[in-house]
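Sample entry (191 residues):
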Amino acid sequence: FLTGVNVGFMPIGYKLGHALAETSSELLIGFGLITGVLVVLAEPAIHVLNGQVEDITDGSITRRSMLMGLCIGFLVAVIRSAHDQTGRYKVLNFLCHVYLTVVRGTPVVVQLLIWWFVVFASSRNGIMVASFAFGINSGAYVAEIIRGGLMSLDPGQAEAGRSLGLNYIDTMRFIVIPQAFKAILPSLGNE
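Predicted structure, serialized as tokens:
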């Protein structure tokens, strides 16, 4: 029943399900039946996606959304950290706070549906819309990860940079961000 479908895991799952169903153990028979049912249920979805399997499995959505999330997250984190430390950028901080609250408080599937059916209703490029939606969502979480790493440093580090005559941008670039990178990297890798 899988003729014409070139997906590597389908024949393996089908054969595994039948091989396990032929054994005498009740647990293995149950596992085999569940695997067989999942394979049968997945068949129509594979046929629907048959023309687009290469587009979806090449990782383009992941790469694009990850890059977009890193850029947005870094920008939002810097704005929020600058406001927390200096009190400036009140309007930008408010916009970033609203963005973080809305995006982090809404399920990603709801966001994806809003982007597809409302914002980009006339678009036929699902890959672009998915990349955009996941990038916006990832940006909110990355922003909080980076902001947490920046705020985890002792305020004396920034004061030391300022006492050396560095402005705020140079202090962040040469002193704070290299030290915060150590705290940011593990959480960012999990995102």
